[in-house]
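Entry for the shared binder. Reason: the reviewer on the internal report wants the predicted structure included alongside the sequence.
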Amino acid sequence: MEREEKQNALAKAAHALNAAGICWAVGASALLSFEGISDGFNDLDLLITSGQMAAAWQAMRDCGAIELPSPTPSPVYATAEFDEYRLDGVDFDLLCGFAIRYEGAVYRYPFSADRIAKTVRMLGETVPLSPLADWFVLYQLMPGRTGKAEAIARYLRARPQAEWAPWLADWLSGPLPDAIRSRVLALRGDAER
């Protein structure tokens, strides 16, 4: 499927979600693509703030999305609410309370309105984007995604730290596996602790 078709579907979903007053943002591979870090993406992962999943589901249905069968539970993800939709041939994952299991612990992504790094305009619609710095951490928690984390690190190093370091500080204020904490500190330029 062409990038233009995916952008059209995203603009349609954005219109519906924004009109319904949903707090949401694009994350994962689509975010990397929109930021120019990767060439493309298969589906759109939309983060939904706590308490708004039912309204987000309805907004997606109202704009013509069809609900896909529930996926098999994953041993990696512990997301509180997850649903998949298809809109104009494009797959969307709605994630509320996104969480990842890693080495016996569960790490929750604290998505809320203050986790919207910026917005972009797509076909006249406002599309919020989650922080790339958050995905630097999240991809390290996911198996087989260290290449994406490294690509994000290269991208962030080329930009002013003031734009992205506060997001990492938030992660450092909570529990993180030691190896990931060390990589976050190294990205920020801190001495290993």
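Summary line for the report: The CA atoms of residues 139 and 145 lie 5 Å apart.
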